[in-house]
Amino acid sequence: MAYDWTPKKFFSLQQEVWKAKVIQTAVELDLFTVLTRQSHLTVNQLTSELKTDLRATGMLISALASLELLEIDEEKIKLSESAKRYLSKDSSDYFGYIILHQSDILPNWTKLTEAVKTGSPPLTQENKPQDLKVADLAPEETIRNFLLGMFNVAVQQACIVAEALDLKKARRLLDLGGGPGAYSAYFCAKNPHLTAVVFDQPGSEKIATSVLEKLNVHHRVSFMGGDFLTSHLPEGFDALWLSQVLHGENPNDAALLVKRGFSTLNQGAIAAIQEFVLDNDRQGPEGPALFALNMLVQTKGGRVYTLAEIEDMLKEAGAVEIRELKATLPPGTRIILGQKP
Q1: Tens-digit pLDDT profile for residues 264-292
Q2: Residues with Cβ < 8 Å from 50, sequence gap 6 or more?
Q3: C-alpha distances in Å from residue 196, one per residue of 12, 164, 173, 232
Q4: What is the pTM of this model?
Q5: Whole-number CA gyration radius for the chain
Q6: Model confidence over 53-68: pLDDT tens digits?
Q7: How many angstroms separate the CA atoms of 112 and 314, rounded?
């Protein structure tokens, strides 16, 4: 992307933040679900349902209308089809959890200047325990938003990855740090002979179970709780899936995680690492470069790694035939493969 920066463009940046916060606020209020269940409410009626302020709610409705998520016809509010599909909890395509997660992390982004000065996220600057991850300090609702938000994102591409990743010879897969298990679910759906173990923090189990039951693969996907850096890992797997986990760890722990995961594999097994990946010169792409700052304000030592760094982690773990999987992925996302000799 070529940028032609002008004063007007610099000034308009703030409006993009405002737009995001308008949508986050509406999702936090569950406004779209209310309007799905009770169509054609007036602003007065909606205010009563949401228990909000009339003047402020009117302003919010105007902003949402300007974003074409709803419209007002003869004082009745009507949702757009996109809002019904993606922002109402009554929809099977509900995408609101990732929006809630984005709202949860926004306060830390406002402290980016502090983080750049100190090299530490805001949580660790408030005399919080230094050896705990953000998730350990977050309230239950925040963790739920994070896990289901990751599921929101994963299901958008899991079917594409399942088509591209050859698991025909695999019988057992370890989904290390797999959260609610979206990728395991799609891998098993694509490969009827496959079973999977999702290994993640114990708090993920309840959410993972409910999601897997909805996708009807719970009988072939099991869950194990623990710390993937210190807990004993099961062994005897034909494939390792490590998706969007390394960026939450410092370089030493990221390398250790790859090595620990790789040690669980049988001879000839495949390891697949999906990550936001920086170019080796660290000048892009834009998505991974921005996400690296997200790790700065959210984690103690997380960062986004270059392709060369991930390849080196696989080599140090003992992998051979290191290559990149060709698949249609979001910009800046790559899947690197390695085989156990």
Answers
A1: 999 999 999 999 999 999 999 999 999 99
A2: 29, 30, 31, 34, 57
A3: 47, 18, 5, 17
A4: 0.89
A5: 22
A6: 999 999 999 999 999 9
A7: 32
